[in-house]
Write a structure and sequence with these properties.
The complex is a heterodimer of chains A (about 200) and B (about 170). Chain A is of the alpha+beta class. Chain A contains 5 helices and 10 strands; from the N terminus they run αββββαβαβαββββα. In chain A, the strands form 2 sheets. Chain A has an 8-stranded mixed sheet with strand order 1-10-9-4-5-6-2-3, with helices on both faces. In chain A, a hairpin with a 4-residue loop joins β2 (about 45-50) and β3. In chain A, α2 crosses α5 (about 185-200). The longest helix of chain A has 23 residues, at about 1-25. Chain B is of the alpha/beta class. Chain B has helices at about 1-5, 10-35, 55-60, 135-155, 160-165; strands at about 45-50, 70-75, 75-80, 90, 95, 100-105, 110-115, 120-130. Classes of the chains: A alpha+beta (about 200), B alpha/beta (about 170). The interface of A and B includes residues 36, 164, 166 and 188 of A. β1 (about 35-40) of chain A pairs antiparallel with β6 of chain B.
Chain lengths: ~200, ~170
Amino acid sequence: MKNRIWLAGGIVIVGLAVVMVLAFQKPYVMHGSLIDPPMPAPPISLADTNGQTFDLSQESGKIVLVFFGYTSCTDVCPATLAELRQVEEGLGKQASQVQVVFVTVDPQRDTITQLKTYLSNFSPDFIGLSGTMDQLQTVWKAYGVYVQVQPNPQNPDNYDVSHSSFIYVINQKSQLMMTFPFDTNVNDIIQDLKYLLKEG
Amino acid sequence: MRLWWGNLWLRMGALLLIGLAFGGLVSEASFVASPDRTQREARQIELVIPAGTAEKVKAGLPVPSIPASMTFMEGDLLVVRNQDVASHQLGPVWVPPQSSGVLQVGSESNYTYTCSFTQTRLFGLEIQPALTGWIRFQGVLSVGLPTGVMLALYTLAVPGSKKEPREG
């Protein structure tokens, strides 16, 4: 009889604990800015640093991180690419399911060779994209990228380009579903990507 | 009544509870009465970008503006609804046309971001720690614990209180 009371008490306590855990379990909250509802990712078809044409639709099944920048950039671009390199390292084996794509906002100076050399400083797996001004402007517009050349009268070849600094996240279903603003914590990005990879 | 009063540990526990109850009363009353309550619990904040905003910005016309800077609490859910035909950026949130951008505001900090539809093209974002249950509980503890301890010490120190168990 006594044993039964202990058993019943134990079951009640364990049951209560399970109910409490389930009740207080919070759903995972993404650190990036979600696009609600996710939209089909605008197409990207540009010349890449592997000497081929990169077609975004071919990347279906992978997470694609798209960043717009230029190789002469001295602040936001190297900082973001270094961060993306850390993300790649942090993902470990799962990094093969994530593709980083760098689209130039300065086609005048960013040749494919220049892009390849620049990106190799960060990761050999990053893909750089360039194209004609028309092709690029179509992509910039589709992703709402702000591009503004800041002329340098003293040295016309050494100009700056103001540009948007978001990392665009395209999920495995080719949907543009999230953006990370500049300077998002690396671990937060890794956590979000791991969650996306797990959820499929 | 006298039996438990005679037990030192029970007495200490009871006085501590009385102290905490008093702390709760004082802390919550001052919280409710405070006229300058900047801290609050996290909540959803919704902003709408109306249709035609991009056109108006392009034409240099005034647009329904938002403040140059906004203060959020940690954990606030910022929802930006874009009813325009062009994408917009409000600080850390980029919103495609006819869509919404949803961001749970992160930890305490101050930022200045680009904004596609404010006059200055800039948007300040201040994030303060949210008022959580734990913070309010800390307020109760900070008043209640010392009060309880003081009461306990008082009953030990006042001679009359030591005699009470012997009376029973």
